[in-house]
TrEMBL record:
Native source organism of the sequence: Cnuella takakiae
Stored PANTHER family: 3-OXOACYL-(ACYL-CARRIER-PROTEIN) REDUCTASE, NADPH-DEPENDENT REDUCTASE BACG
Protein's name according to its UniProt entry: NAD(P)-dependent dehydrogenase, short-chain alcohol dehydrogenase family
Domain of life: Bacteria
Stored Pfam families: adh_short_C2 (PF13561)
Length: 264
């Protein structure tokens, strides 16, 4: 007899944490999990502009060890454990110019945010998941792990490549103990931040935002789908991966890039 799956309320009773969950893809993921019935905790350095009172917000800088410790302590104190961990936080603030302009501080900041923050959170929550024999961890990486933009985001790309490797190895260790670990590697996502960036490029180049968008897609080597992803499209993939419908999926990287990467 086939097991029926229902998308409505399928995460009822689950506690989910989404890092970087106040905007962009993180917000879309948090909203998607809430719609599926999960109790959602979000964390970021600053509170969301439009606060969702049904989501538990924790202010923390996950680029620092004390920030991740704060989040782990507050979640465990409030809920006693965690069922779903979405390590979505990531980003790059390094200047363009390639290797020559990068400092040790640039490398350290990228590694702290994009690799060590998720590793610390995993370490904080995994003992509770393992003790119950269940849990799902998603690491949000990037296609830059395979297609780095060396002129502008070299440390970010290196950190994301390390995250992909770490995620696979973690899966090998904890999947036999009941915890699924997966990686999602998005391409370009048209968040509000990306929209503002397109506006700045258009203003600087005295062109339109549509032309600015096309120029960025060309810089990425082209997006066969013809446009960046929407945050909700990435969130829908995450919603499936953490659900009972994906119960046999672990140790795998899922690329959602509209066909950007030419080979796998």
């Amino acid at each position: 007899m086939e097991t029926p799956f229902y998308s409505n309320n399928e995460l009822s009773g689950k506690i989910a944490l989404v890092t970087g969950g106040t905007r962009g893809a993180g917000k879309a993921i948090a909203d998607r999990l809430q719609q599926a019935g999960a109790k959602v905790v979000i964390t970021a350095r600053n509170a969301p502009e439009n606060k969702n009172t049904e989501q538990h917000f924790i202010a923390a800088d996950l680029g620092k060890a004390e920030g991740t410790a704060k989040v782990v302590q507050e979640v465990l104190a409030a809920y006693g454990g965690l069922d779903i961990l979405i390590n979505n936080l990531g980003g790059s603030d390094t200047a363009g110019g390639g290797f020559a302009v990068l400092t040790d501080a640039d490398w350290e900041a990228s590694l702290q945010t994009n690799l060590l923050a998720p590793a610390r959170l995993d370490k904080g929550f995994l003992p509770h998941m393992i003790s119950r024999g269940t849990g799902v961890i998603i690491h949000i990486a990037s296609i830059q792990a395979r297609l780095p933009l060396f002129d502008s985001t070299l440390p970010y790309a290196a950190a994301k490549a390390a995250l992909v490797n770490y995620s696979k190895n973690l899966s090998n260790e904890v999947t036999p103990k009941g915890v699924r670990v997966l990686t999602v590697s998005p391409g370009w996502i048209m968040t509000s931040g990306s929209e503002k960036m397109m506006q700045r490029i258009a203003e600087t180049g005295n062109t339109t935002t549509e032309e600015a968008t096309r120029s960025v897609m060309q810089a990425l080597g082209g997006i066969p789908f013809g446009r960046p992803a929407q945050p909700a499209e990435v969130a829908e993939l995450i919603g499936f991966l953490v659900s009972p419908r994906a119960s046999y999926l672990t140790g795998t990287e899922f690329v959602i890039d509209g066909g950007t990467i030419p080979t796998t």
